[in-house]
Amino acid sequence: SALSDVPNMEICSLSLNNITSLKVFQHTKKLKELYLRKNLISDLRELKFLVPLPNLKVLWLWDNPICQHPLYRQYCIKLLPNLVKLDSTAVTAEERQYSAQMQISEQDILPTA
């Protein structure tokens, strides 16, 4: 992937690109902001590819099928505890605490479609 050639990238905006997976981002360790609005990401399990990105603070996945999952926001915050903003909304301390305590199984995050 072309992203492996830019390991120092800090901001990435690829909205409206028919992206279906987050795997290509797993090695962009310096990434701070990722904007992927209006793509085709539909599986919450894809978020696991963002776990190795300790600097990721802003994530916009709004208007992807993944956003329709009832656990979308809580799971994002649980899996990516360094987020300060998810889509257009700041992550609150209360949300972070609640999400950290949630027990979410693999079964819970399977696509609902």
Quick tags:
15% helix, five-stranded mixed β-sheet, 113 residues, 2 helices, 5 strands, alpha/beta, 12% strand
Global morphology: globular
What is the average of the pLDDT values?
Answer: 92
Low-confidence stretches: none
Q: What is the radius of gyration computed over CA atoms, rounded to a whole number of angstroms?
A: 13 Å
Query: Which strand order do you get reading across the main beta sheet?
Result: 1-2-3-4-5
Strand content: 5-15%
Largest sheet, strands/sense/barrel: 5 strands, mixed
Structure notes:
The chain is an alpha/beta fold and 113 residues long. The protein is built from two helices and five strands; from the N terminus they run βββαββα. Strands 1-2-3-4-5 form a five-stranded mixed sheet, with helices on one face. The longest helix is centred in the C-terminal third of the chain and has 9 residues, at 93-101. The termini are far apart.
Describe the structure concisely:
The protein is an alpha/beta fold and 113 residues long.
Question: Mind sketching the topology for me?
Answer:
Elements: E1 11-13, E2 33-35, E3 58-60, H1 72-79, E4 85-86, E5 89-90, H2 93-101
Parallel strand pairs: 1-2, 2-3, 3-4
Antiparallel strand pairs: 4-5
Helix pairs in contact: 1-2
